[in-house]
Automatic annotation (TrEMBL):
Gene Ontology MF term list: NADH dehydrogenase activity
Gene3D superfamilies xrefs: 3.50.50.100
GO cellular component: mitochondrial inner membrane
Organism the protein comes from: Aegilops tauschii subsp. strangulata (Goatgrass)
Protein name: FAD/NAD(P)-binding domain-containing protein
Protein family: Belongs to the NADH dehydrogenase family.
Lineage: Eukaryota, Viridiplantae, Streptophyta, Embryophyta, Tracheophyta
Membrane-topology annotation of the record: Peripheral membrane protein
Pfam families per record: Pyr_redox_2
Stretches of the chain forming a coiled coil according to its record: none
Catalytic activity: a ubiquinone + NADH + H(+) = a ubiquinol + NAD(+)
Domain FAD/NAD(P)-binding residue range list: 17-133
Cell location: Mitochondrion inner membrane
Main location: mitochondrion
Length: 151
């Protein structure tokens, strides 16, 4: 809501409006994909009614380091979700790794394009889960075996 309120201020340029309502989700797993889809619905079904002049500036981006989103599921689910995002206008950036986050931009890197910095209004970090290195070291010291995902 705060991003929409800022974007609705009368003294902003179009670029400033776009920045304020550029929502970036980092991570294409189940949580990131669900958040992006719910945010899209919230923007289009609710906020567009409250802020009709701001709606045209909204951009929702999902940044995923791998080739596809939802890689832990059957490929049919992956392709369905990617196609749905394309149809609804959610910008899917695969094969990009986030290398820096500042208060104004997110910098991502791709082997083909190099580094790209994009301005944003709200970022949601939803990348993988794993045990912190200090805990991993402690577990080794006490003879525990880690059976989950590796960071």
């Amino acid at each position: 809501m705060k991003c929409f309120e800022r974007a609705a201020l009368p003294n902003l340029t179009d670029e400033e409006r776009k920045k304020n309502v550029h929502f970036v989700v980092i991570g294409g797993g189940p949580t990131g994909v669900e958040f992006a889809a719910e945010l899209h619905d919230f923007v289009n079904e609710d906020l567009a009614k409250l802020y009709p002049d701001v709606k045209k500036y909204v951009n929702i981006s999902v940044i995923e380091a791998g080739e596809h989103i939802l890689t832990m599921f059957d490929k049919r689910i992956t392709h369905f979700a990617e196609d749905k995002f394309k149809r609804t206008g959610i910008d899917l950036k695969t094969n990009f790794k986030v290398v820096k986050v500042s208060d104004k931009t997110i910098t991502m890197s791709n082997p083909t394009t190099g580094e790209i910095a994009v301005p944003y209004g709200l970022a949601v970090w939803s990348t993988g889960i794993g045990t912190r290195p200090i805990i991993m070291d402690f577990m080794k010291q006490v003879g525990q075996v880690y059976l989950g995902l590796h960071p």
